[in-house]
Each structure stands twice: as C-alpha cells, then as structure tokens.
Amino acid sequence: MNSEDVQAIKALVSKPKRIAIVPHKNPDGDAIGSSLGLWHYLKSIGQEVRVIVPNDYPRFLKWMPGTNEVLNFEKDHIAAVEYLNASDLCFTLDFNHLGRVGQMTPILEGLGATFIMIDHHQAPDNYAEITYSDSKMSSTSEMVYNFISSLGDANKISSEIADCLYSGIVTDTGSFKYSSTTSKTHQVVADLINKGASSFEIQNKIFDTNTPDRLKLLSCALKNMVILKNYNTAYTILSQEELDTHNYRKGDTEGFVNYGLTIQNIRFAVIFIENKEEGIIKISFRSEGNFSVNEFARNHFHGGGHTNAAGGRSDNNMEVTIKQFEALLENYKEQLTR
Ligand code: 5GP
Ligand code: MN
Q1: Domain boundaries, the chain
Q2: pTM score
Q3: Which of 165, 272, 327, 331 has most Cβ atoms within 10 angstroms of its Cβ?
Q4: What is the homologous superfamily of the domain 3-207 according to CATH?
Q5: Contact (CB, 8 A) for 60 and 209
Q6: Is the minimum distance from the CB of 305 to ligand 1 under 6 angstroms?
Q7: Other beta carbons within 10 Å of 194
C-alpha cells in the first residue's frame, strides 16, 4: 500500500465509525478468512464493524472465530440492508468489481459510504476511494496482513486474527503450492504461526472434513473426466442428478477441478457443474503456465479471476455448453500446446 493511502486510512479509522466488510458471492476460504481477520482487527481498535456475506459459505469454514456474528444478506436480509445503509465505511474484500456480490450489487452501488477495496484479482474496477489491489499477492488474506502492518499495528494481530488469515492463505495457495506463493507469503505465514495460528488444527478443520457422500461425488467427477490430449486439456462434469444422489452441500465440489491438472502434460482443467435452481452451469477453470483462464472465462463464460484460476457460468444446458467449450479449444490450440 502506498503511504498516501496509509495516511488516508489512518485518518478514516482515527475516530469510531460504522464499518461493513463485504466479500464476494459464494465466499471461499480467502474471502471469509480475510473478512473475519479484518473484522477482529477493526473491532480491537474500537470500531463498530460487521461482516456481511452475499450468501452462505461452506461448513468447513464455519469454525472460524467470529463466524457466528456474520450477517448473511440472503438469510438476515433486513438486518444486513439496515446495517449497510447506515455504514460510513465499506471494505470490499477478494473481488474486483461490484457485480461479484450478486443480489447485493444495487445496494452497494447506492451506498453513501467510503469504499476501500482490498483484492488480488487482475484489472480492478475503479469504484473505491481507496484501492489496494495487487494481482501478484497469493491471497487477500496476505494483503490484510500487510494492511494491518502498514498501519503500524502488526503487534495487534491476535491468535484469532492469525487463525483467520492463515486459513485464507492456506486455501488460496493450495497449501502453499501454487505459483502465487512467494517467500514473503511464507514469512507472513511464519509470523502468523508465531502469533498463535494453529496450523495443524486449521488444515485439519478445513481439509479433513470429508463425508462419504463427498468422496463418492469426487469419484463421480473422476469417472466423468474427459481428456483431450490434442489440447492438453481435461474437463469433467457433474449433473444436478449426480449432486442430488450424493446429498450435495455447499463446498462439496471445492478442489475437484484441480485433479485434471495433476495429469502429466495437462495444462488446462475445467469442471462444469449443473445448477438447476439458478438455471446455469457453474464453471471452474484452472491452468498451469501462461494460458490465462481469466481471459478465457471473461471472453466466453461471463466470468474472470486470476491467470491460473477463474470461474464463470453458462446459461445453456450442459450438452450445448460442452459443445461450445470443445469448439473454442481449437482457437487456443497453439497456446495450449506450445
Ligand atoms: P472458483 O473456480 O474456485 O469458484 O474460483 C476461482 C477464482 O475465480 C476465484 O478467484 C474467484 O474469485 C474467481 N471467480 C469464480 N467465479 C467467478 C465469476 O463468476 N466471475 C468472476 N469475475 N470471477 C469468478
Ligand atoms: Mn482470493
């Protein structure tokens, strides 16, 4: 963060304010970890503050300290709207354009609050008074650590804050494996452990909570996998029926898309997940190397994200969506195979 922004934020939080913290729709570990980490910090310096999520998040994140105080815009609608409308400051975390909060978008667009964006996605929109955006960062949670440190408050990072930020970093880096993980990331994580983050317990709570149903759903996704050798691409699908058969719960398909990338020479992996209720196919894209799934998702599937991890959707049925996808690959053959 540049020193001008630091000074501006210091001035903003020098007096008690009413603050809202909003992560993106379908919040993941980084969205929730960064939001709750910032929430604990702002509370500790005497602010009135609430985290407001656009919709529900997976059960494997619901142990995080502060989770019971989170307002859900869908479930606690009236309280959430009231709180937002009366807020002075609104932190938006882990997303780069207001469309990413789904049904909350018009409310945020109408707020009189001062906006502060903290985010690591490429090409941020220009809606915030203060934009702390850095696409080289492993995670928004690492940025919240930097944010608190820039304000001179690293010593105020409690074990609760450390647990939340560690969770966000460990999930967004695939347990410190993805190319966004830097030596600085490891230094931040080391400091979080020194400040009380319980790394073993956190990883256990997030990653070792499989149900038999989830594992069987994974076997379904693996069985459905199609490998297109000519394009170094692997994709898989899950139909609504398959999700229902395995009592799908939010978060159950997290990480499934990554299996395709573990195959030798595969550089592009995709999962298509049918959502009958919303009438869409939700898509996750992953890549290794220079092939930008951010561009691919933006250009063809109403989405976006990072170079190597992005999401999007299709409003067509599964069959049509897959045909479209396969036809598109020819245009990228050079990039995918060179
Ligand atoms: P996932 O595939 O795990 O849902 O998302 C991967 C990355 O893409 C995350 O950084 C997420 O924020 C972003 N992403 C997921 N879905 C969408 C979408 O519909 N639109 C945009 N712009 N980004 C998305
Ligand atoms: Mn993130």
Answers
A1: 3-207, 212-337
A2: 0.96
A3: 165
A4: inorganic pyrophosphatase (n-terminal core) (3.90.1640.10)
A5: yes
A6: yes
A7: 10
